[in-house]
Amino acid sequence: MSLFDKIFRKPNNKQVQNLGSTFQTLTAYAPSFRTFEGSVYESELVRSSIDAIARNVGKLKIEIFGNHTIRKLANKPNSFQTWYQFMYRLTTILMIHNTAFIVPIFDRFGTVTGVFPVLPINAEIKEYRDEPWLVYHFATGQKAAIEMSNCAMLTRHQYKNDFFGEPNGALLPTMDLINIDNQGIQEAVKSSATYRFMAQLVNFSAPEKLTEERKKFTEMNMKAENEAGGILLFPNTWKDVRQIDSKPFTVDAEERKLIQTNVYNYFGVNEEILQNKAFGDAWSAFYEGCIEPIAIQFSEVVTRMLFTEREISQGSQVMATANRLQYMTNREKLNVSAQLADRGILNRDEVREIWNLPPLPNGEGQAYIIRGEYYNADNKINEGKEDGKTEQND
Fold this sequence. Notes:
Radius of gyration: 33 Å
């Protein structure tokens, strides 16, 4: 059984062919999605930026609250991936194509046993029995369909299309500049490793003579096996010998920095994030501006996919969370640990998590500790009132 068969147990291809007309949207755009941004990922700078985001999204902790069957997914999303692998690939797809699909995996009884991020080459919305269905077309030629209510979509830059994100056309001019800059650097390296001369041939008589002289000079001086020792010898039949100084154009440091900043701005990263130098407030800003929006959107769409409206109203949900305190400096961690633990806000296991330590065995770390000099203000006020009444009565 193939991966396709394991994921799309229903409906079969016959059902896919029987789907009705295109689902009508509010805009004039047809509800279809195509993958076309493959070249974007081939840029080293773009790939590094996406990798930095995907690595941090992959570290989110997936928590599931709801019925027992769905809660099992908190251990792993499917039989093929860990949650880190799932979130990393999902984020990469989202950053490249601005639309990412998650489909449920059903067993033969129709029970959800997993979720999987899919990357079709084309997806369109069809109408079947007054309900919108997503039809996926894969590179293998296989097709599958699923009710939109039973799948999840994450989007970025959603504007004209009612369901899917916009292509990365706004980034293409910057990608062209990166490509031109890289070519300029390559040509500069090649040019620096070669040298060229021009000269006037004395007693020139025929074009064939010029070709013969050039060939003779190349064989004598330019072949790798010659032992000229870096010395070029010119015959006395040549005069006015001059070296051709070729200077290929390359982007200067300031312009190159501007190109890089365009990519950083597009994906919401910077050099500190790419080079793993961000911590404390810098990492918190990156989390709030880039990671948290993905976490919130993922939590909402997967919750809607896995649970009914009634289950959601009763508290069933999927949450992608991160312990942001782990990214503080050691001095900040120590201060937060002491202050919040002393006041009973964090228990011992939560403090240990900040320091990347495992929880204590047998649930010993679940207890909350409060320092003895802290009192409940309401109790102290009430005690004072009672003391006052007693003295008045006396």
